Amino acid sequence: MNMIRLSLRMLLRDWRAGELYILTLALVIAVSSVATVSFFSDRVQKALVLESNQLLGGDLLITSDNPVPPSYAEHANQIGLRTTHLAKFPSMVSFGDNSLLTSIKAVAPGYPLRGELKLTNPPTEENVAQSVRIAQGIPKPGTVWVGEKVIDALKVTLGDKVEVGAAELTVVSIVESEPDHSVGFVSMNPRLLMNEKDLAATRLIQPGSRISYQLLVAGEEPQVKEFRYWIKDRLSPGERVVSIQEARPEIRSALDRAGKFLNLAALASVVVAAAAIALAIRRFIQRHLDGCAVMRCLGATESDLLRLYSYYFIVLGLVASLSGCVLAVLTQEFLSYWLEELIGVTLPLPSSLPAIQGMLTGMVLLLGFALPPLLNLRQVPALRVIRRDLELVNMHSLAGYGFGVGILSILFIWKAGSFKLGIMIMLGFLLAVIFFGLFGWLLIRLFLLTRSPGSGPWSYGLANIRRRAIPSLVQATALGLGLMALLTLTLTRNDLLQDWQARLPENAPNRFLVNVQPDQQEKLMVFFDGYAIPRPKVFPMVRGRLLKINDRAVSLEDYPDPRAKQLINREFNLSWTDTLQADNEIVAGHWWREEAVSSEHELSMEEGFAETLGLKLGDRLSFYTGGGSFSATITSLRTVDWDTFHVNFFAVVRPGLLDNYPASYITSFYLPPDKIHIMQELTRIFPNFLVIDVASVIERVQSMIGQVTHAIEFVFLFTLLAGFAVMYAAIASTQDERIYEAAIFRTLGAKKQQLARAWAVEFAVLGALAGSFAAAGASVLGYLIGKYALHITYSPSPWIGVIGILVSVIGVTAFGLIGTRVTLSQPPLQVLRK
Amino acid sequence: MARKLTVEQLIPVNGNDQPIIQASNLTREVETGGERLTILQDINLQVSAGESIAVVGASGSGKSTLLGLLAGLDVPTRGTVFLDGEDIFKLDEDERASLRGRLLGFMFQSFQLLPSLTALENVMLPLELSGADNARDVAHNWLARVGLEKRVRHYPRQLSGGEQQRVAIARAFVTHPKMLFADEPTGNLDATTGAQIIDLMFQINREQGTTLVLVTHDKSLSARCSRVIELVAGRAVD
User: Fold this and answer.
1) What residues of B are in contact with residue A14 (Cβ under 8 Å)?
2) What topology is assigned to B51-64+93-237 in CATH?
3) Where does the UniProt annotation place the signal sequence (chain A) (predicted)?
4) Which ipTM score applies to this complex?
């Protein structure tokens, strides 16, 4: 027997007869929402990476103490990447009697590969205001572009020649901003940009010069990855690769969290869609019981039926998933276009992975939830052709969905990109199903006990729920799950956005002052007072070199990881404080304990830093500082929220330990745009200060958060759409029974309105059940996800219960009544004759 | 006016032949509310090839249960059924299904047409399940034979009761079964339509030489069968 052909025919026939619309709709919505979310977040995340890469000036940066070997750029070019190189070094720049220590950047054509270099047009007679334009190319040989501070300090005007080493170069433009000027916090103002062709003429490149050579690389993501992989093992000592994630931890943190949330949203639509599919399959099975019994009667064996419906669902799954993917491609294209218009960013093309994910999701969902009932369906008793009352054994068993849930868990872990998050969400939903089921069962039993007399719509509506106890429970649980996913998403979305706004408020610190001397502290505070800037917190800092770990001398050879090498090789910034900062959290060990004051000094280390260096609790570290050496034991590991832009340290000790060592101070503060001019005054009064400007980084992070916010809104829409599918499937799952029941009631003289009212009561009660389940579940899950996955402060909303129940009651009742309108309009005889 | 011809007038029963249906001590009991209820008790029955049997009795007398057991749709508490020499309760459910596909045709009171299939597709189904190549043409011919050549693309819900039962006749005979089991085939039809359906069924049955086991309330219908078995409270009475 050619079962595939027969399956296809059955499928086509069922489709034509309208038997598959709900299931297909649920599946298409599931796949398209998952794939759209994936496509869209893929594109947005790529855009975010590109956007943040502007801060690097390229997608990857190779830095070196020596000129970067030409073979690197050659290979990059060969695989289709764009490259440019530059050299950075500090040097004195002079004009007349004035000279100034300046950060010089000698660039080659192509710079910057990502982002824009902005120049200021000085005020002219026609145009009194300064205007900013985007630079085309780089300074021509013989010319330089300088920062405003060079102009002010050296008192030069455009057209003047300044001395850079042995060369005289003409100042032709004023640099407003370079995309990569804040990478690594090492850039110093003032700055000067020159053409690399003039470098030799300056004669500044001498053995021992502090020069950083850089190769910038940019291109398509796969090639960039390939290049990164290629170069990994070829780097010589002193060379390292940097991407934005390493350069700016606060941006990585924002990206990670955005990615996690978008994945969470996609998972929410999977859960909602799974509920819709489970309901639709349930209806499918009910409607196909008779057909299967007839086929059994006509000679189909159990394995025939299993094969028949397996092919049937595989083809259905493939076609529906493919349609969902096509729909997703179109929708995400539309959304991307809309978003591009809105935020003026061109989104990079998506990869094909979301389509594969979408297809797999569709197949996994359908087969996971269709297979267990299918295995049941083949066992339909043939005798049902004579005795209609024979039902499938185990038809209502929740255990049958265990397979689906298992498969879904794997999908969750995969989509969440984290075992912990995937399992947490899956367990959350699983516990919710058990809780909803048990609690719902108890409530329905309670309805049974309180059998109310009378004939009003309330009594009929409640009677309906009693009579359809199992389907009602399934409906309420599925709706509750769907709504729970939506509410969890709403709660965490709000918390996430609020959290971001709280971390990066309008007045987030945008300037760091380093090298503040102890005796300058008070003077600095007075300076701030004078300009009505709130006094910032000042942190002490002692620089020290790590000599020994557990009395064993530290050796570079012990650290193959280049980043670890680099950390070991430079001086540590050690600080002290008696209280843990708000954006720090102890993850191992304990903070300073009163009773612990002993001969052993305590040290708290940042977790990631400790991991890189292979340090653990209890390790004894010995440092050498300008004033001598000391040892301390690691008694706690901390996580630090780098995206708050507050001053933070990798290593902190208890106050008192470093009192006798030379300390300087560091602080960060918010400089409003209208007070930018005071920085000149500040650097004049405190010439030893190192000022680090992170305003542009903050601006980027804020703009990224803006983009993610938009993305989240869209993603949310899709989950909502899947929610509608659940409602539709839930209503449809009892449609046949309702049609029959309506026919009987109407034959017995019930008016349409009476029936509609009774059903409205039934739907409202179901909605209230689902809404309360969802609100309770979402509050718990929201808390867990906020705390353990997104690391945000979860704010429980007292309104969530009210809103959840209200939305659910109104939604289910409205959908239910609209869905059953057709039912009421069918002539009773037509229905009964069937 | 349908001709009043019975099968036995046309096909002589060869008494020496092995019976095509042989039931011995067929008993069916069910548990209801902790009580054991006997629906059928010690039914012994032999049906020869080409014979037509009517099973009659009041509601609840066990007629449909007997039909279900004879056709292997249900299993007895005790007793055996041989169909065409095969002890069907020694087979497993799948083997019985294959045997049904090979040997049996069915007609039901509620027609049991699949609502999502057209008349033609309903008739094609048993052929498709048995892997026949020319299912469409054969089914088409059969529908023409029952007078529904113009209704092939109609769905069951678009057909009258009589038309639906004609489709069921075509579906029952399309595989040339040796035995036809009919459960109240006129139960859902008015008298005139019922009579037309019965004429058609007997006519085809005669042409095909099929053995017929018929459950009915209808006295006129049972009168057309070669033998009548009456059930009273699960027992056969002579």
Assistant:
1) 116
2) Rossmann fold (3.40.50)
3) none
4) 0.83
